[in-house]
Amino acid sequence: MKHIIVPLDFSEESINGLELAIMISSMTRANIQMVYVMKKGAEFPHVSQDEEQRFAKSRFRELQVKYEHKLVSGAELSSIVKRGKIYEEVVEQAESFDDSVIVVSTHGASGFEEFFIGSNAFRIITASERPVIAIRHGLMPKGFRKILLPVDFTQDTRQKVPYTMELAKIFGAQVHVLSVTGGKDPDLVQRVKSWSGQVAEHLGENGLEAVTSFRSGENISDMIVDYALTEKVDLISIMTDQGTSISNFLIGNNAQQLLSKSPVPVLCITPKELHVRGGFRTYGG
Question: Quick one: 145 exposed, middle or buried, by C-beta within 10 A (0-12, 13-18, 19+)?
Fold first, then answer.
């Protein structure tokens, strides 16, 4: 994690994402880049695009004065103004850097209002191949001391392990591996528990403390939120698209439920076939 991209509309809610990025940078020494996107071809009454650009640059200067001194030595706070579709420009900006992550507030205002509210709220998450950390207003953790890692029966579910593991190492976090199922089929339950045990064993082999638990019920997002509240975790790590079960967080109602109810930031990982040194496979089998 060398670069953190933070989309802003300058609302208090979006600046919450910037403050989370600064907290993460304090441990990783990652550079932070703030991004404001003007809608391509948009017409705002009595406001020209030149005026909007000057306004954005002025606000960026104010934010740099306010937050730059909070960065650790070696980390930089920069900004850029772009034009186009917001989620496309933000994702493109993140992909212009190696080892980048996007930190975004799930609510915003003004130019970002349509993007952050409603079904379009997940476009940046589903469109990005880079990890995205989403945070609700007023939920700023002081650090990631406990990370919740839900594991279901799908093959892609364990792909979030490598990135989650690296964050846990950086923050010295305890990882809670939570097996979750929407049914009581004995074979399915055993399969999920087995995968959970493999994940916990891998974390232990890499010097991390892992705690395992199991939950079964009709609403997986509620089970995860309840666990997060009970155990006072600081971050929840999920996949963005697996096609079933937990994956539906970011393509249907479960996603809206989790991101609207989660008491902590949510780390969203895009699935792809990955292999980790030491022979640990990040997909099922």
Answer: middle
Which residues touch 197 (CB under 8 Å, ≥6 apart)? 212
Q: Cα–Cα distances in Å, from 191 out to 46, 86, 186?
A: 61, 41, 9
Structure tokens at 126: 């589903």
> What is the distance, to the nearest Å, from the Cα of residue 57 to the centroid of all Cα atoms in its chain?
26
- Return the SS3 of 7: strand
- Read off the pLDDT of residues 90-142 as tens digits, 9 standing for 90 and up: 999 999 998 999 998 876 544 444 445 334 457 788 888 899 998 876 678 88
225 in Cβ contact with 249 (< 8 Å): no
Mean pLDDT, rounded, for 210-221:
89
Return d(Cα 178, Cα 116) in angstroms, integer.
29
Tokens of 74: 């070696």
Q: What angle do CA 55, 33, 25 make, to 5 degrees?
A: 135
- 188 three-class SS: helix
What domains appear along the chain, each with residue ranges and CATH number? 3-135 (3.40.50.620), 146-281 (3.40.50.620)
Q: Within 10 A of 188 (CB to CB), how many other CB atoms are there?
A: 15
Report the distance separating Cα 157 and Cα 40, nearest Å.
Answer: 37
**What distance separates the 2 farthest-apart alpha carbons in the chain?**
64
